[in-house]
Amino acid sequence: AEGAGGAAHATRGGRRLSAGPGGVDVDRAAGWRARRRHRRGRGEASMRAMGLRSSPIAAPRAAGCARRNTRRRRVQALRSLGSQAGGADGSGACPLGDAPPRDVQAAAATPSSTASPDAEPLASASASSCPYSAAKGAAEEVVDAVGKTARLAAARARKLPRVDLDSATFLQSVIKAATDPAGMAGAMLDWSDEHGMTVGIDNPIGPACVATVDPEVVEYVCYHNASNYKDRMLPDAFRYVTKYKGLTGSDGEYNRQHRLLCQKPFLYQPNLHDFAGVITGRVDELVSAWGEAHALAEERGVGGGDNHSGEYATVAADDGGRPYMRVDMNEHSQRVTLDIISMVAFKHDFAQVERTRREMLTATSSSGGGGSAWEPDELLDAYNESSELMGQLFITPVPLIKLMSRLGVEKIRRLEESYATLERVGMALVDKRRTELAERAEREGGIRAECLLDTLVTATNPDGSPLSNDDLWGDINDIMAAGHRTQASAMCVALYHMSRNPDLLAAATAQVDALGGRCPTYEDVKEGRLELLERVVKEGLRLHAPINLFPRLAGGDDEMPTGHKVQKGDFILLSSYAMGRNGRVWKDPLRFDPDRFLPDNLVRMQEERGKALGLSEKDIARQVQRILNGRDFVYTPFGAGPRSCIGGSFAQMSVALILATCLQKFDFRPSTHEAHQFGEALPFNYDTTIVFTEGVHLEMRPRVDAPVSDRESEAEAEAAGHA
User: Fold this and answer.
1) Rounded CA gap, 473 and 456, in Å?
2) 3-state DSSP call for residue 612?
3) How far apart are CA 596 and CA 578, in angstroms?
């Protein structure tokens, strides 16, 4: 219904019907109700035949559709029905007053919709109580089915070059990949350079596979025929320790339902506005800790020269005697982003930034500024160790893992202990939140979800049972792990490259200063006031993708646009890392250049690529529009298709705000640390995500020209008044 006391309207036979808080007007609806009763019997039969839920409004229309014999007329009728799903008068109001809000319906129907984070049954993710929404969903399914047939035919008709690798070449590549920081993704780049962007592999040690970095083929796998490639290939070790639960470790309908449930808070714009305040508030605390450490160093006259002791944070003096800080940003970034994701998703504060502040002040206070101040951190240690071990056990099958576990093999023991720690911490959050929700329900007579954890704790399965502890921990673990590591790596990459490009750093700082010293907001990102930082983040994700591979499993036999025959169970190797560094798509791919993502440059790139492929003008225009909308298959740092990362957009927004908050107060310069002796090259590796094994070392100084915010001016004036 439109608002608390508004009216919804429908039209039938030229007569306007009103539905207010009391329902449909009886006098005006009498004729319609009589016709409804007369047609309802055959209407319900037609609805059942079409897989729709019977309703007094949709049934006559469904009956009419069933009487038509041609596909064209049926699709047209269903389109007409679907177009009225938001209200017969086009107002977006449902003629039934008890339907859920449209934002909740939309979020349940499509991953790209926005939705309220209010808790609701898990089963409702696939079905709405509104008959209009049910009819619209069925209409879209029919239209999509027709469109999919046409898309598949067009994709297969566009024959792309076919290349096949012999077994010897493949095995040589596997051996080489064992020492490549990017693993098999590095081999895929070699194949693209030496053979072609898509290669078929007759794997002598496992299932056959097709490896591709061709955006056209990736689009086929992740869009045109995504239903055949909806399952993700994961290491057995990961599924073993996560009990086949979570967004990453599950498949099928279970995965779809949990994705719909978990992604809602990260798509709902009012939430994003609130999340932005959490992000900038916690980063401001980190920046304040940097400032305290620097002030203490100045007060104590700390020096250190070329001290590269490798400690967590050191303070030394430059040639002019002015203190500056050498920091491993890899550690700082993980601390602050773990705080951010836990506060945003779980309303819990791990106080990692406060731990950072204590460590920095202790290190600064110690002799020479290089003393050890490390505090044990079981949560981050468990995440980092488990990821490292997972990378080492990537291809180990579950039966062998179970045997190694019974034999007490150290790697398996450490992996199980790490995940036991993560599960213990995660379930402690659940138990605490359950208690708080029960107390609030008793006090207030009901529960309104305030975060994702509330939604999960109060959600139910389709049979009405609550989610199990394993279900809850699986989702919590995925959100917490992926949420903080993705943001942390992107923050590191962006600061590292900006520190080595003074012009870029100056331009980004100027854009931040244009805010006048106030706190950056979600609206600043949305309205383009931080567009350079957004491009910096995108370029960092292109060059150092959070994940190196997002392989798929074929659900059935198929033929790729390249002519490669695929059988059920075959692997399709896809790589964010290799696609981001594909020299056949990106010019000078190893150069850090945020200007690639200027709209004009994106258009030019797609037009040149389309002409080289011989695409029609219509297809080129479609590719251009897709990359401008951020829904292309050229730029895939978070994967692509139905199994892509649910928090990709949130992560990009978050990192842009993190960078803006850092640049407001601090200046960054390259470190002379031995880990970065090769200039712009940033040492990295992949386990489950990208990791910087040598750290990301930067030198930081407080800005002397930082604009003063209104809040700071007021605080200074108040302090002066008290004095």
Assistant:
1) 10
2) helix
3) 17
Q: Which two tokens stand for residue 410?
A: 């150290």
**Nearest-angstrom CA–CA distance, 420 and 405:** 14
Grouping H, G, I as helix, E, B as strand and the rest as coil, residue 199 is strand
- The structure tokens 């994705």 sit at 259
**DSSP sequence for 408-474:** T-HHHHHHHHHHHHHHHHHHHHHHHHHHHHHHHHHHHSS----SHHHHHHH-B-TTSPBPPHHHHHH
Positive or negative: CA dihedral 713, 715, 719, 721: positive
* CB contact at 8 A, 393 and 414: no
Alpha-carbon gap, residue 231 to 256, rounded angstroms:
11
CA dihedral 93, 95, 101, 103 (to 10 degrees): -50
Choice between 382 and 25, residue whose per-residue pLDDT is larger: 382
Identity of the amino acid at 352: Q
Can you tell me the distance from the alpha carbon of 257 to that of 313, in angstroms, rounded to the nearest whole number?
44
- How do residues 602-635 score in pLDDT, each as one tens digit? 999 999 988 888 888 988 998 898 888 877 899 9
Give the count of beta carbons closer than 10 Å to the beta carbon of residue 685. 16
Distance CA 569, CA 496 (A): 41
Mean pLDDT value across residues 185-198? 92
Considering only 97-106, 603-612, 675-684, which range has the smallest mean pLDDT?
Answer: 97-106
Structure-model confidence comparison of residues 717 and 296, the more confident one: 296
The arithmetic mean of pLDDT across residues 157-166, rounded, is 73
**Residue 174 in contact with residue 163, Cβ under 8 Å?**
no
What is the identity of the amino acid at 430?
V
With contact defined as beta carbons under 8 Å apart, do 390 and 687 qualify? yes
272 token code pair? 């994003």
Query: How far apart, in whole angstroms, are the C-alpha atoms of residue 604 and residue 449?
Result: 46
Q: How far apart are the first and last CA of the chain?
A: 58
Report the Cα 693 to chain-centroid distance in Å: 24
Q: Is the pLDDT of residue 85 over 90?
A: no
Helix, strand, or coil here: 212? strand
511 or 375: whose pLDDT is higher? 511
Element (H, E) at 327: strand 323-328
Tokens of 606: 């797609």
Q: Quick one: which H or E segment has residue 540? A: helix 531-543
